[in-house]
Amino acid sequence: MLKKGCKFHVPSCLASISFSNSYSDLSFSLYIHRELQKVASFGTEREIPIESTEKQRRTRCKRETEMGLKNRAEEENCSMNEALLFATVCIIGLPVDVHLKDGSVYSGIFHTASVEEEYGIVLKKAKLTKKGRCATNVTNGSVVETLVILAGDFVQVVAKGVPLPSDGFAGNTAHGNGEAAFDIVPSSANPLNGANRFTKSTMDKRKNNRKRNSVQNENGFTPAKSGKEHEGENLRQNPMGNAKEVVYQKSDRTNIEEGKDASSATVAGRQVGDDSLQLLQDEYDQKFEFHVEESAKEVKHSVSSLDACLTQVKPVEGAHAEMTIKLLLNGAPHDAPVVGKLENQCCERPTATDIYQDAVCSGVSISSSPVTAVSSESCQSSLATQAAIVSSQSLESNKNSKEFKLNPGAKIFSPSFASAISAAPPIVPTVANVSYVPGNSPMVAVVGSEPEVGIGSFAPRSSTPSKFVSYGNITAAHGVSGSQFSQPIVGHVGSRTQPLRYAGQYHPVQAVPAYLNPNSQAVMFGRMGQLIYVPVSHDLVQGAAAVSPVPACPPLTPHHVQFPKHQGSAPGQALQLCLPQPFIAGGQQPLAVPSHIPFLQPPFPANRPIQVPGSNGLYSTKLQ
Amino acid sequence: MEGEEFAVGCFLSIKTTLGDEFEGQIITFDRLSNILVLQEGPKSGPRRNIRLLKANYIKEFSLLRQDEDPLDVKKCFLDLTSLQAREDCAIRQAEADSERFGVGVTSEAQSLFDALSKTLPVRWDKTVIVVMNEVRVSSPYLPESVSGGTPAANERVKKVLEFERKRMQVRGASQ
To answer: Of A296, A428, A478, B93, which has fewest CB within 10 angstroms of its CB?
Structure first.
């Protein structure tokens, strides 16, 4: 209530109080309260029961609010109703604009208010943002440490962006978000898979988690499953090439899932899983259904890994675009790492997976039957990554760990990988057979050469399935018959435009998984040069392997299949690869291609080195 | 203006005696202090604006519609620790920001300072802008006013200053 007759004394009303920084909040509050008390009681001389300290007052506010705003304005010592008190407390510490009677506006941090009788306000770091009619002792532009605004001058307080408690306070919200993230990841994975898949995936996740734990234990990973990151770190620390690789694959999957390509990725994952299963069962020809189931399982695995990595994954998802870029970059590094080091590869993998995921998905589906297609898409990146992975796996678990470091998500994934790994051993073989067939089988071969590592890599691949598949193919090609595989891919690249078609083709042939591929392919294209490659590869594959892909794959297993493709388009493919590599062009280009070709037949060593350098350089350049 | 008129949950369109016009939903009205608490913004949004308005200064208002009490009593929890942390953080931020404001300088000088601060480390030495701790730009903040520092740094600051002045001119012209 404005008291009529009350003079408007801006200078006197606005007590600008400067405290030394050493003043305690308590004493300050006391001071303010006394000041306000004087003001409030001025003229009325009424004995006002005042909270001795702001803190107490706030505490009481809390108590009251928790009690529920039952007796508004009826609280014995509180002259202000609880809702007003609540609103006041809600804006403490927020920047507010205080409008005064003379039209001036002060901006500052809401520190406290007197709720006794009159509503006086204390601002911290107050500035005069709009000058009123009256003179003031606050100069324009200067910051007043503590500004007391008396009730008589106060017109309104405007606080913007107030997080009302009903919306959840920051602290609580944050916690909730963290948890939510975890939950979300799984869900995202699930959606991709579909209801059935979801259920399966959830089931699988549980299983996977168990497996992961066991795996981790086996690998020597710390059993800090709860901390996914920890696991990732452990992986890094531990020289578990397999586990790491697995994790990577998972991460890739997760990335894929997360991304728009998620569905495709999941599909890819499924396919991969199927592939792996197929490999295990040697049932490529048998049917997609099996693949689907397997893939579902794999998906589950991936999901579990995703879950583990959820936190990390989420970030990744958030920045898919960035991720893709990174992936591209990573892909380059992967190649290089492959040649030089596994660490880089790991990083590359994640990226590759993301980028490739789409391609992989399509490729995967394709890969299961038409290995080439898969390889083509993800081949370049994936191939490089795969090769790198393979080499890395075989070579060094440490590298993997490094990769993890590079990719936070990768770390997260690592846990999942671990779980995947547990499953991986069996899966890997299957995976290799499946989409990766070309790559995978090569991978396998590589594995054979590098038993432990190879296995690990395989496992990852299986888990990574879709993404890796393509990658796997590439890598595989690089690693063992990697060159061959890569070549197929190259060939595919040549027929880039066809990709989609191929995907479709592949899908039909291979199975349901293929469906995802189309999407993924599209994505891949958009993302990178690699994508382009993929299409090409598809074409090549289609053209060259179209018929053979499935048949060849089943009989031969992935490796064989790939070879056929490679063989068919080998020369041309190699050339094509070069073309696709334009992305690479950026970096890998020719060298990579040549290397691949030569490598194809030569074992890993040659291929890897070559790929790595080329891919890395190119990618990096591109990325940059 | 009687408090009883303000039913919690009402959406009002309010004009104040100071010329402000806004819409908001009533959170509460405190008769004793004659303060009306309103919230603005999307109802479901995580953050809204809160206004504490002294009812004396309401020139006119119209009832837009009636709604439920926006405060859910069961959700009214406050974390004093986080509140305190928020205030401390805000004060620290304000302190950091306050160092950016030159005292007794023109708005043009301040905007030049702000522009320079985007690319270079700057601080105020009274009314002189100190760039990179060595180059000094004094009033009237023209390229000719740049002094001190290594020739390279000096040239750099001059260029940035010139560029920023051109930008400001363009902006001013466009307005």
So the answer is: B93
